[in-house]
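Technical annex, item 7. During the second reporting period the consortium partners agreed on a shared format for inverse folding records so that results from different sites could be compared directly. Each record opens with the tokenized structure and is followed by the designed sequence. A conforming record, contributed by the partner at site C, is shown below for reference.
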């Protein structure tokens, strides 16, 4: 189950909740009790790395799924051997 982040617009307290995707968003603040709780948009807490299926099965040859990686790394002359 994913963890969702909420913030109360009345008392500005941050709150995390473990909920099913199908659950309705929370609206009541656990601290002040007002109906001013809003769901925050946040990034996932993990990143898939390595040579698993997500890296190898749906890519063109030589393409990587790394942030900041450029396609010129193969022609740079560096010898960063494969694992």
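Designed sequence (site C submission):
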């Amino acid at each position: 189950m994913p963890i969702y982040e909420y913030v109360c617009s009345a008392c500005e307290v941050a709150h995390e909740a473990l909920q099913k995707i199908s659950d309705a968003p929370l609206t009541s603040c656990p601290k002040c009790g007002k109906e001013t709780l809003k769901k925050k948009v946040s990034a996932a807490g993990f990143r898939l790395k390595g040579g698993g299926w997500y890296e190898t099965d749906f890519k063109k040859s030589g393409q990587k799924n790394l942030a900041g990686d450029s396609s010129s790394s193969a022609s740079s002359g560096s010898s960063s051997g494969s694992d």
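The first strand starts at residue 3 and ends at 8. The mean pLDDT is 74. All partners now use this format for quarterly exchanges.
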